[in-house]
Write the structure tokens for this entry.
Amino acid sequence: MLKVSVIVPVFNAEKYIGRCLDSLINQTLMEIEIICVDDCSVDQSLNILHQYEKDDKRVKVYMSKENNGAAVSRNIGMRYAQGEYIQFVDADDYIELYALERLYKRAKANKSDMCFMGMQIHQGNRSNKVHRGIENTYDSIYDGKEILGLFIKNEDFFLYSCSVFYNRHFLDRHEMVYKKITIGEGGDFILRALFQASTVLVEKEKYYHYCLNNQSVTHNQRERIESLLGQIYQYIDMFRLMSVEHDSDVLDEYLEKQYNKIRGGINILSKEEVDYIESKLEDKFSKSIFRMFTAKHSYISEFRNQELELIEKASKIVIYGAGYASCDVIELLNKHQIEIFGFVVSSGEKAPCSLYGHHVFIIEQLKQYCKELLVVVATNKKHHAQIRENLERYGFEKVLYLNIKM
């Protein structure tokens, strides 16, 4: 009997697919099938797949009729899968040789629906920041919603598509399929699965090697729009599931955080880009929720007279905070034909290099200007005490705290 079906979506992966398949055919667990779905590759990927298929009868190759993306390829793989459990592996990644045996034994012993695992991130020569995956230890057997709340509370990143070992009958029973979106389809799938799962395990060991390469992700506007679309799908599905049954403040806070993040992303899109996202949503409910994001929300509608007077007298102005309220502040300053020196944040750990065409400074970089700069604070009031402490530490004296409506 087949114990594990490994599903590998493949598109133009000739440089990496050999390493991936070698890590699978040499697994210590022998009773597996390796389902490769080629998504109309135009390089040598398909020829490489057929050679592995010829050499090892456990390798099975299927071909998409048209290029549809990894989500559709995974759905095709699930349609043919016969194993007790399913593991997704991307073509440019690989897994430890003992991974499937250990995951199968633990999942089988505990009759788990889902088993998360640690991930080793390999960035190559890519300099972008990535999530590190699940870093904390979870030793119990959890209900899906319970572990979801813990992941969020502990700030563990649990949305990597290939970080979960699934019970195939669990997926079949709940008719789980990937939605046809380009970025974020794995996170959407995992969120929906967690709301159905009754037994979830977490393996801390990093069985999976997640490899970033220069070709795997681009950084153009279309990619950012597709990423935003994925976030919207995740929000809508979680909103839909939570509307039926939930009692978690953590999940409420997560939804609120995601809501503000999505609104901020939508605020800087053109009308054509917003219309494109709406056209990709599948049903009336989704479109209704999406309109909540596009409804105009103003964090600040106008400066008060004394605020404007102080701003107009300043020789140099910086805006403290790189959040979504700063967009409204910039619009107001532009309305009054007032230029800013840039933005300032407490730490550079998660800060962008620029925002709305202006440089983003770390606070200590501006201490030489502390006597002449007017710092306009555009954040939620709950952060003001910490901000005041930071500004006083570096000697800033001219500070204006705006009345931001969150």
